[in-house]
Design goal:
about 450 residues, alpha/beta, Chorismate Mutase Domain, subunit A, Aspartate Aminotransferase, domain 1, 3 domains, seven-stranded mixed sheet, five-stranded mixed sheet, 16 helices, 12 strands, binds prephenic acid
Length: about 450
């Protein structure tokens, strides 16, 4: 056999051995995942991952392997494990889907699991819907959004947030969720790292996992008022770090960061040339002074916004991103690839909805949040009062409380709430949404209390 053929045999064997080992590693991760599930332990274990990183770097020195290659490979392996271990994870969405199924079977459910306001979109939406046909909003369009709508949004953003914004800074997307997907998938590459401050809406992590991007989790605690430590953020940054996600007012905690802490985080992000993805869809529900990331005028920031919460237009699937023209260009290329353009009739309707006064929505949600807070104070719950958004994220004062088990049993008694584990390592927590009329919320809270007492 010639030398090249011998070497080719060898390289094939090495490839097969690596794949066999990968299978064995993934199977082991699955077993660990099952145990974690039984023990009520969270999926990602940053300490274990850090220890592994240190050991891998030592090995790199010993065997003289390039450290960057090794770290990219390690991130890939860790992502595989996290994906495998997340397969059966329960989130607010899985509870919502189960609740919908029960409703179809004729059961009555109080929805306190999703952030879906029960009130109607602004009245103007109804007339706008009836106009689209005659006005001819029936064709393909620009993947960045309709020119008129982008202009209207630029004006709206300029007025609302006090930061001059042009149409070239706007990308219209089907919901803020799609803008989050576009930002993560078009700006980052496999092997890059993204910082997510938990508890967090699961989509940031899941989008990163889907694109082969490693999530570095900053765990925050109730005891520390859900404030990330700046040192923790600095410590996870390395040459692979590309983006940090911010979401204030926060889902699920309702937290708004103190201004100086937000300033410090932005300073670290800018110094390290990171993209800042700031999901600001709860800005209409800020009950304390709040500062948009737009005000930093940082050209690597992407702000996502939506009509779902502010205008009660969840089912319309319409939102937008605000960023530099270069980033908008990149995101729109992926959007064009995925869906050509956002439905023009819906864009037209949302453009009209921009004129509506939504202050009543803000007041309604604030009152509802207060209703559940009032009741929560009399129950076995620990929490920091939310500064905004539409949720209460509370710890149940019971040893070894399993939020998944509890939320499943609660659903059987007709109340849907979200388990804490959907938002990170928060098995002892639940998220209760304040989107129903006050009577319904009180009824739901009473059932939760009864259920907790009967445990
Ligand atoms: O040690 C664990 O808890 C594992 O699940 C294994 C593993 C890994 O793949 O090495 C997976 C995910 C954790 O974040 C840390 C490590």
């Amino acid at each position: 056999m010639s030398d090249i053929n011998k070497l080719r045999d060898r390289i094939d064997k090495i490839t097969f051995d690596i794949l066999k080992l990968l299978k064995e590693r993934n199977d082991t991760a699955k077993e660990i995942g099952n145990l974690k599930n039984n023990l009520g332990i969270g999926i990602t274990n940053e300490e274990r991952e850090n220890q592994l990183r240190v050991n891998v770097l030592t090995l790199c020195k010993e065997i003289r392997l390039d450290e960057k290659t090794a770290m990219t490979m390690l991130n890939f392996l860790l992502n595989e494990s996290v994906k495998i271990q997340s397969e059966s994870k329960q989130t607010h969405l899985s509870v919502f889907l189960k609740a919908k199924k029960l409703e179809k079977e004729g059961k009555k459910i109080i929805h306190m699991e999703v952030g879906e306001p029960d009130f109607l979109p602004p009245k103007i939406v109804s007339s706008a819907l009836s106009e689209v046909y005659d006005k001819g909003y029936t064709k393909y369009g620009d993947s960045k959004g309709m020119p008129d709508f982008r202009e209207a949004l630029a004006k709206y953003v300029t007025e609302k947030f006090g930061v001059e914004t042009l149409d070239q800074n706007i990308l219209v997307s089907p919901g803020a969720r799609f803008s989050v997907f576009l930002a993560i998938s078009s700006l980052l590459s496999p092997g890059n790292e993204i910082i997510v401050i938990e508890p967090a809406w699961p989509a940031y992590r899941d989008n990163a996992l889907n694109s082969g991007i490693k999530v570095r989790t900053i765990h925050t605690t109730l005891e520390n008022k859900w404030e990330p430590r700046i040192e923790d953020i600095k410590n996870v940054i390395n040459e692979n770090t590309r983006m940090i996600v911010l979401n204030y007012p926060n889902n699920p905690t309702g937290k708004i960061l103190p201004e100086n802490l937000q300033d410090q985080i932005m300073e670290v992000a800018m110094k390290n040339d990171l993209y800042v993805l700031s999901d600001e869809i709860y800005s209409a529900y800020a009950n304390k002074p709040w500062k948009s990331i737009l005000t930093y005028r940082y050209n690597k920031s992407v702000i996502t916004q939506s009509f779902s919460k502010s205008h009660a237009m969840t089912g319309f699937r319409i939102g937008y991103a605000v960023s530099s023209p270069e980033i908008i260009e990149k995101m729109s290329k992926l959007q064009a690839l995925a869906l050509t353009n956002v439905s023009e009739p819906i864009q037209y309707v949302a453009m009209k909805a921009l004129k509506a006064d939504t202050t009543d929505n803000t007041k309604t949600i604030r009152n509802r949040l207060e209703t559940i807070l009032k009741k929560a104070k009399t129950m076995q719950l620990d929490f920091v009062e939310p500064d905004g958004a539409m949720y209460l994220f509370a710890k149940i004062r019971q040893d070894n409380f399993d939020s998944v088990d509890f939320t499943n049993k609660l659903l059987d008694t007709g109340v849907a709430i979200a388990p804490g584990e959907g938002f990170g390592n928060y098995q002892g927590f639940v998220r209760i949404s304040a989107c129903q009329p006050e009577d319904t919320l009180n009824q739901g809270m009473q059932i939760i209390e009864d259920r907790l007492k009967s445990k």
